[in-house]
Design a protein that fits this description.
- It contains no helices and 52 strands.
- The chain is an all-beta fold.
- The strands form twelve sheets. A six-stranded antiparallel beta sheet has the order 1-2-44-45-46-3, with no helix packed on it. Strands 5-4-31-30-29-28 form a six-stranded mixed beta sheet, with no helix packed on it. Strands 47, 48, 49, 50, 51 and 52 form a six-stranded antiparallel beta sheet that branches.
Length: 673
């Protein structure tokens, strides 16, 4: 049975209730968007500005004036796309937008390449070619429409390219990092309004970066290396733009000074640890950005290395001059939010017996963070290591539930290895304390990334269990014991009926207000599927197919709680891929967003033998390519929205799927185990 706690706020108590057994209205009249700050959250260092934004894992950023008000706005690509508008002060305000529904992959650049003064969008197509979306000039729908593709431009997957008018002829040239540690240069021989890029050299400036070695003035390199992030900026304001290079294997930033000018560039390495007075130190793949948010260009560095999932958006303020910058680091989190690292799960309970809802947050790193409800719509951080584990935990999906009917919330942790770990609360109502005790939970392998959820789905007044996993499957276990001594027996069900793409994250709630617990399952694609329970009594009886689908637009969505408002609408609080918490606000009078035509869903992902391809419109052909662009398989004709393919003959690795649909070509990646 779920907890019910009133929020003690300046608003009416009826306006916000944290509800697991919901008082709801029909979802078909609502859609959702992120509200990053519905409640105040404090850490010891101060207020978290965007606590419910969802965290950041591997951000790629662009500063540009999106709404043409004369102030720089911010766009972040981190799997999801997040936009922030500025009103002239240093404060940035999150702006939900439908402008980012296009296939933005790996990187983005926002610059005017069509000569109309509006920033256009350049991004990858998944196969190395570059897509260009022209800015429509319509706020919140800036880049809706069909992308153009310039066959002359190419950018390696995983690397962040740059646009800069290097030869000072009034149009933007294109620079892209290569796996060989070099920089490709595409000169723009067109104009500011009609670009015509032409490949000129794979070894711009003779620069080669190999591990900790930097060579300038060298010939072409054939050595294998890794991804990179290239930035071009006139650092000394002398008309000779320099290069700032973030390497996959380097924790710092390389500064290569241009000592030859724009027309005849020659470079020398100034430092591997820029800026020299306060060097950047992250796990790696650092993107450098210079932006004027007051009077001088400040320095921003984002880390895109896979393990750089916290403290990855650094801001350095320029206290020098335009010709002699001096940078001082202000923060490691320019956009601050609650963030546990990667693939977060939330659990709620009043664990200090003060009548207010508290929550814990867990994720891939294994630690569990705790936040205390302080009333007046606020939360206070307690600890990032709330429960010191008796052994190292990994890939944690936590749940809080009273397993032995003593009135105290116990902790159940689903783990990466597919097992569950139990921690019994041996403390007092106002002072929880936990001891590992696995006697109250089932011992079995539920599949990688086990994610537990509890609820009395058979209406016999004890806690039953459902567990999701990485393959998108769910398993139901009925509590056939007692409230004081539970015993969980697996129910025989057709698990495929409840399968999602991958990373199934289930919870129970009475979604349609009929007195029965329904099943909500979050997934890697960001879609929450809801199955209604069909009858009351001692039997599990869900509908055969999802009754509701909500495209939350947030990867690896893990629903955890519902906020019911006094107007009958309801909001969703969930964990996500980016490691934080997203607060999804219902938008009245709208239809929930279903998977849109430009999205191609692959599941299970990773896959071992069979791969299902799903699109919103009919699929005509499906091609599978390896990372070298070689086509390995083709299936046609299909003329259906879904197709399951045998991929057992493929070797382990990363592959790309291209599907031709009645709405154009769609692309997606999958991993073969």
């Amino acid at each position: 049975m779920g907890f019910i706690f009133p929020w003690v706020t300046g608003r009416s108590v009826a306006e916000f209730l944290l509800i697991f057994l919901l008082l709801t209205v029909n979802l078909f009249s609502q859609s959702y968007e992120i509200n990053p700050s519905p409640f105040q959250v404090m850490r010891s260092s101060g207020k978290i500005e965007h606590p419910f934004l969802g965290g950041l894992n591997t951000p790629r950023i662009q500063f540009t004036d999106l709404n043409q008000d004369g102030f720089l706005d911010l766009v972040i690509l981190d799997g999801d796309v997040l936009s922030f508008l500025s009103s002239g002060s240093r404060a940035l305000h999150y702006r939900p937008s439908d402008a980012w529904d296009g296939p933005i992959q790996d990187w983005l650049i926002l610059k005017d390449v069509t000569g109309d003064g509006l920033p256009d969008l350049l991004t990858a197509d998944g196969f190395g070619e570059v897509l260009i979306f022209e800015n429509s000039g319509i706020n919140d729908n800036w880049f809706v429409g069909t992308a153009a593709k310039d066959p002359a431009l190419r950018a390696e997957s995983g690397s962040q390219p740059a646009l800069y008018d290097f030869d000072n002829d009034g149009d933007e040239d294109f620079f892209g990092g290569n796996a060989s540690g070099t920089i490709s240069f595409f000169r723009n021989n067109g104009s500011a309004s009609l670009p015509q890029w032409q490949f000129e050299t794979p070894n711009f400036g003779g620069i080669i970066v190999l591990l900790d070695t930097v060579i300038t003035g060298a010939g072409a390199s054939k050595a294998a290396h890794g991804a990179s992030a290239v930035q071009i900026f006139d650092y000394e304001n002398d008309g000779a733009p320099d290069i700032f290079f973030g390497d996959f294997f380097s924790s710092g930033v390389y500064h290569l000074q241009n000592i030859g000018g724009g027309s005849s560039p020659r470079f020398r390495l100034i430092t591997k640890n820029f800026p020299q007075n306060a060097p950047v130190q992250t796990p790696g793949l650092n993107q450098t950005t210079f932006a004027i948010i007051d009077s001088l260009p400040d320095l921003f560095v984002t880390a895109a290395f896979p393990s750089a999932d916290v403290d990855n958006f650094l801001h350095y303020r320029n206290s020098g001059t335009r010709a002699q910058p001096a940078f001082r680091r202000v923060t490691k989190n320019f956009i601050s939010s609650i963030d546990i690292g990667r693939r977060s799960h939330i659990a709620w309970a009043d664990f200090n017996a003060d009548g207010l809802a508290d929550f814990i947050l867990s994720g891939d790193g294994g630690n569990i963070a705790a936040y205390r409800g302080d009333g007046d719509s606020s939360f206070q951080w307690i600890s990032d290591d709330w429960i010191p584990p008796t052994a190292t935990l990994s890939g944690v999906a936590s749940a809080l539930v009273d397993l032995n009917d003593d009135g105290l919330p116990d902790l159940v942790a689903g783990l990466f290895d597919g097992t569950l770990r139990g921690f019994r609360n041996i403390g007092a109502p106002a002072a929880p304390g936990f001891m590992e005790d696995n006697s109250l939970i089932p011992f079995e392998d539920f599949g990688t990334y086990a994610a537990p959820g509890f609820g009395d789905f058979d209406n016999d007044r004890d806690q039953d269990l459902v567990v999701g996993n990485l393959r998108g499957q769910v398993r139901f276990l009925e509590n056939t014991g007692t409230k004081q001594q539970p015993f969980f027996a697996r129910l025989v069900t057709n698990a495929d009926e409840f399968a999602v793409e991958s990373f199934a994250s289930p919870m129970f709630a009475d979604w349609n207000n009929d007195g029965r617990l329904d099943l909500l399952i979050g997934s890697s694609s960001g879609v929450i599927r809801i199955w209604f329970q069909r009858q009351t009594g001692m039997k599990l009886s869900f509908s055969a197919a999802p009754d509701v689908q909500i495209d939350a637009g947030v990867r690896s969505i893990a629903p955890a709680a519902i906020i019911a408002r006094n107007d009958g609408s309801k909001d969703i609080v969930a964990g996500c891929e980016r490691g934080g918490i997203v607060y999804l606000t219902a938008r009245d009078g709208m239809t929930p967003r279903l998977p849109v035509p430009h999205k191609l869903l692959l599941f299970p992902n990773p896959s071992t033998d069979r791969l299902t391809v799903l699109a919103a419109t009919s699929i005509i052909t499906i091609d599978i390519y390896d990372i070298l662009g070689r086509r390995l398989s083709q299936q046609s004709p299909i003329e259906a929205q879904q197709r399951t393919m045998d991929v057992s003959n493929l070797p382990a690795g990363l592959f790309f799927v291209r599907a031709k649909t009645t709405n154009g070509f769609l692309f997606a990646k999958f991993v073969k185990l």
